[in-house]
Amino acid sequence: MSDARNRMVARAAAEIAPGMVVNLGIGLPTKVVNYLDADFPVCLHTENGLSGIGPTLPVERADRNLIDAGGAYVSTVPGSAFFDSAVSFALVRSGRLDLTMLGAFEVSQSGDLANWKIPGKFSPGAGGGIELAQKARRVVVLTTHTDRAGNPKLKADCTLPVTARGCVSRIFTDLAVIDVTPEGFALRERAEGVSAAEIIEATGAPLALPAGDTPTF
Fold it and tell me: Containing H/E element for 35?
């Protein structure tokens, strides 16, 4: 990953508090585990049937039967548990996840999330994204601030199929940390070396700025 993406994922990892049960979604969120200390007291969950996830492993060291929902080779930690999909989604649906970290194609200023399908392109399906977005106690997103063509991913309204409405609380991008508030997007932190003007230009909706200096990460 680029330095900007590494910095984003590291900052997102700091959102996890000791004792949480956390789901890491497909894509950038699965990298978060590698930015947590080995002895950090957290229970990481993947919807394909594992709680208690350790760092991802290279192929030569991996158990090829042990993967997360995104297909990455993962490791176990003391206390890891394996279960079937029914149990895994019972954990999700019953609200036992303190936090889920998801990727996104788009996020609207009201917290709507679009992260499962781009019309005209192959999609393996919604997977667990819809239920994770609806049932976790807190939903945050990790995504690049713009797409490959430079178009904003943070928009006034989603133009892609919506996964869940009003679910996103905070967005971590390669440029900034942005909260979804009742008034819309609010800048909380900016990446080192990135100006507020650059973030405003890359955002497809109004962005409220803090009254004083903006912290950096």
Answer: none
- Beta sheet of 106-108, edge-to-edge order: 113-114, 106-108, 154-155
**The pTM of the whole model exceeds 0.90:** yes
CA gap 217, 192 in Å, rounded: 6
CA distance 30 to 165: 23
Catalytic residue among 47, 106, 189, 192: 47
pLDDT tens sequence across 103-152: 999 999 999 999 999 998 888 778 789 999 999 999 999 999 999 999 99
CA–CA gap between residue 53 and residue 214 (Å, rounded): 34
82-103 burial, b at 16+ Cβ within 10 Å, e below that, comes to: eeeeeebbebbeeebbbbbbbb
State yes or no: is 131 an active-site residue: no
**CA terminus-to-terminus distance, the chain:** 17
Q: Within 13 A of 64's CA, how many CA atoms are on the CB side?
A: 2
Label the pairing between strands 43-46 and 50-56: antiparallel
Q: Are the beta carbons of 191 and 175 closer than 8 angstroms?
A: yes
If you count them, how many residues does the chain have?
A: 217
Q: How is residue 113 written in tokens?
A: 């999330």
